[in-house]
Design a protein that fits this description.
Blueprint: E1 5-6, H1 14-29, E2 40-45, H2 51-62, E3 66-70, E4 79-80, E5 93-94, H3 95-103, E6 108-112, H4 120-124, H5 127-133, E7 140-142, H6 150-162, E8 170-175, H7 185-197, E9 200-204, H8 213-226, E10 229-233, H9 236-240, E11 245-249, H10 260-267, E12 288-290, H11 303-306, H12 313-332
Parallel strand pairs: 1-7, 2-3, 2-6, 4-5, 6-7, 8-9, 8-11, 9-10, 11-12
Helix pairs in contact: 1-12, 2-12, 6-7, 6-12, 7-8
Bound molecules: phosphoric acid mono(formamide)ester.
Residues 49-52, 144, 152, 292-294 line the site of phosphoric acid mono(formamide)ester (CP).
Length: 333
């Protein structure tokens, strides 16, 4: 299997995902330091990153290739993303010129472009990222868009494989607190991944934080293919009963989307959704704590849990490097 683009895990069959994971395992055991010699990856970060930025650069280097990083407005021209505006503000260059120019310098391009967080339908449809994708005539990687983070999802799948978590076991995606509304990309990607892996997935979230119907429907379609299931509840303790995985994630209210004050009022009383040692009394004794990082200690997840034996967050983060090397190999080798 060769890849043209890596934008959404849902673009691939279960067998194709397993094939990518097998390649990741192979490269982990038998490194290929010259596989991408002479190849160049361009990385455009319209939003901040630690893991994605460092792991893609490290992955290209480990495969013998090179990379360049553009963070618009920080040493390079700020990029305008809107169409139809008079560019008389801070942005000197438009993505309609900037992205094709960058693509012409490399063999594959990765783009990170978070949700605008104003219009739920626009963000759920990934309209902004899809518009950027039309400007690129090279292999393209989604480094996190408004509604997707396929690299994180693939790394999370590998982590579950590494830990021998049975596909039909209970996987709880739980909303956790954060000082402000965060995008839906990671919860949507994690939910779809767990459903496609065959888990019985429960989304545990307070009222006002239900995931959009399109996100739930996509996960249910994946579950139908794999024999898993997808349900949701606001009863966290019941959700966690017997759980083998607790995937903690922050996201913004979908009933107050784009309304920072309304969201803030809603989350003001939700501090008790933090994952603590007590939380695990409801879960299976062997339950793992997953989180994509970065995580706010003692806000989203208690320190005792992050530093404890149930936490696999560092394992997940390391697997970003491992699975992305497989993606790069498929795109460029
Ligand atoms: N999980 C993740 O994508 O991390 P960064 O935002 O640091 O890249």
């Amino acid at each position: 299997m060769s890849l043209a683009r890596f934008l959404d895990l849902a673009d691939f069959s279960r067998e194709e995902v397993l094939d990518l994971l097998a390649l990741a395992d192979r490269l982990q055991q038998h490194p290929e330091p010259k596989a991408l010699a002479g190849r160049i990856l361009g990385l455009v970060f319209l939003n901040p990153s630690l893991r994605t930025l460092a792991s893609f650069q490290a992955g290209m280097a480990r495969l013998g290739g090179n990379s360049f990083v553009i963070t618009p407005g920080q040493g390079t021209w700020a990029l305008e993303t809107r169409l139809g505006v008079a560019m008389d503000g801070g942005a000197a260059e438009h993505i309609r010129e900037g992205l094709p120019v960058l693509a012409s310098y490399c063999d594959a391009l990765g783009i990170r472009a978070f949700a605008e967080g104003k219009n739920l339908d626009a963000d759920v449809s990934d309209a902004g990222f899809k518009a950027m994708a039309t400007l690129i005539d090279k292999p393209l990687i989604n480094l996190e868009s408004a509604i997707n983070h396929p690299c994180q999802a693939l790394a999370d799948w590998k982590t579950l494989d590494d830990l021998a978590v049975a596909p039909r076991s209970k996987f709880v995606l739980q909303w956790v607190p954060h000082p402000r509304a965060l995008p839906l990309a990671v919860p949507a990607a994690a939910l779809h991944m767990a459903a496609l892996r065959g888990h019985d997935v429960v989304v545990a979230r307070p009222e006002g934080y239900a995931l959009p119907a399109a996100v739930m429907d996509k996960a249910r379609a994946a579950a139908a293919l794999s024999g898993g299931s997808v349900t949701e509840t606001d009863d966290r303790a019941t959700a966690l009963a017997g759980a083998q995985v607790l995937y903690a994630k922050e996201w913004g209210s979908t009933t107050h989307y784009g309304d920072a004050d309304g969201d803030a009022r809603l989350r003001a009383d939700l501090g008790h959704w933090q994952v603590t040692g007590r939380t695990f009394e409801d879960a299976a004794a062997s339950c793992h704590l997953m989180h994509c990082l970065p995580v706010r200690r003692n806000v989203a997840v208690a320190e005792e849990v992050l530093d404890g034996p149930r936490s696999v967050v560092l394992h997940e983060a390391h697997n970003r490097l491992v699975v992305q090397m497989a993606v790069l190999h498929r795109l460029l080798a």
